TrEMBL record:
Membrane topology note: Multi-pass membrane protein
Keyword Aminoacyl-tRNA synthetase: no
Transmembrane segments: 42-64, 159-180, 214-235, 247-272, 293-314, 334-356
Domain called ABC-2 type transporter transmembrane: residue spans: 42-353
GO cellular component: membrane
A GO molecular-function annotation: ABC-type transporter activity
Places the protein is found: Membrane
Organism name: Epidermidibacterium keratini
Protein name: ABC transporter permease
Length: 376
């Protein structure tokens, strides 16, 4: 009779004992996330194209604006002194009024100025409507003193709101989708089981958020630097000086806002095990990214709505810097909004960590949030 075969037992705590400490594990995962993206050709190419588009767009807009054709004005006799000083109007000398009117009817000029015996000494002839630019050039304008030179025009308000909103949306969606894709892929391939043998679940989540936050903040800073370079190259230093302080606050708000959104992306991804199911858990995170952008774009000229949005945690990273640029925020408002955002971020991260650890090892159908929160 043969002796019974014994199977060596494995201590179930061995893998746990070999796990790295929380902070070291978090840094290790963060380093892995950063290197994975930095070594990706698609990441490098897409960011390079984005930066080139920012700089090129600013330069192109400046060139188009400076090279726009001036309006042509036919003058019979001596042109008014005010008209000669207008940089956006080209004076075309005409021998007589009949020839000048022929040019006007042929739309070769937009107006005709003829000397007469009136108090001004001349009159303006147009074809079908009043030539506003010519009249404005001839008008006597008094010196204007601006008490608040930092105030922005309506067009500039919308431009700054779109710029801040677009940077926040592009950076958070790009990194957030990367977190979601990697998390689901690790679950689907069951690599996560190997990772959890060496890294605690909370450290895995923290590393993903930290690594992608570094990438996201670096991308936002690079976009801001590209915009600053474009403004300097095109000689728009005044606008750059106006936007510098709000831009610094934007980066500070961006850090907390990005962590908040990234936590939602990671928690949502841990609930599913297939890439095909990602859409069902992506909506909350996408809404938190899209609302600040569209809110800032559509309500940039509404101080009440912008004030509300500047205190809502996930829209504050866009709305508050915009209000600061417009000079509509008191000195204490950014600090209060940042405090609310930081507190909300801490709470969301804690809930996301509970969902992440409670559903990461569960495969198959989608895990309910209540079930993930109920697991120890």
């Amino acid at each position: 009779m043969s002796a019974p075969t014994t199977t060596p037992t494995t201590n179930v705590h061995d893998s746990r004992d070999q796990q790295l400490s929380g902070w070291n594990a978090t840094l290790l995962v963060a380093e892995r996330e950063i290197l994975t993206q930095v070594r990706s050709k698609s990441f490098l190419v897409s960011n390079a194209i984005t930066l080139l588009l920012i700089v090129g767009g600013i330069i192109l807009a400046s060139v188009i604006g400076s090279n726009s054709d001036p309006g042509r004005v036919a003058v019979v006799g001596t042109p008014p002194a005010a008209l000669e000083q207008a940089e956006d109007l080209e004076i075309v000398e005409s021998g007589d009024q009949q020839a000048a009117e022929s040019q006007l009817r042929a739309e070769e000029v937009e107006a005709v100025i003829v000397a007469d015996d009136s108090e001004l000494g001349y009159r303006v002839i147009a074809l079908s409507e009043e030539p506003t630019d010519v009249v404005n050039a001839l008008a006597v304008r008094p010196d204007v003193e601006l008490l608040d030179p930092a105030s922005a025009s309506e067009g500039l308000r919308s431009l700054i709101a779109i710029a801040f909103g677009l940077v926040f949306m592009m950076a958070t969606i790009g990194s957030g989708m990367m977190i979601m894709q990697n998390t689901i892929q690790e679950k689907q391939s069951r690599i996560v089981e190997i990772l959890l043998a060496a890294v605690p679940a909370r450290a895995l989540l923290g590393g993903k958020i930290l690594g992608n936050s570094v990438i996201g903040v670096a991308s936002a800073i690079a976009m801001a630097a590209a915009a600053a370079l474009g403004l300097l190259v095109t000689g728009q230093g005044e606008l750059l000086s106006m936007i510098s302080a709000p831009l610094i606050w934007f980066v500070v708000f961006f850090v907390f806002g990005f962590v908040l959104v990234a936590s939602v992306f990671a928690a949502g991804a841990s609930l599913v095990s297939r890439q095909e199911d990602a859409g069902s858990v992506m909506t909350p995170a996408m809404m938190m990214v899209m609302i600040p952008y569209f809110g800032a774009v559509f309500f940039a000229d509404n101080p009440v709505v912008m004030t509300i949005l500047s205190y809502v945690p996930f829209s504050a990273p866009v709305a508050m810097p915009v209000r600061m640029f417009l000079g509509e925020a008191q000195w204490w408002e950014p600090m209060l909004a940042l405090g609310l955002l930081a507190a909300c971020t801490v709470g969301v991260v804690a809930i996301a960590a509970r969902i992440y650890t409670g559903s990461l090892l569960r495969t198959g159908s989608r895990v309910k949030v209540s079930e993930a929160l109920g697991r120890k």
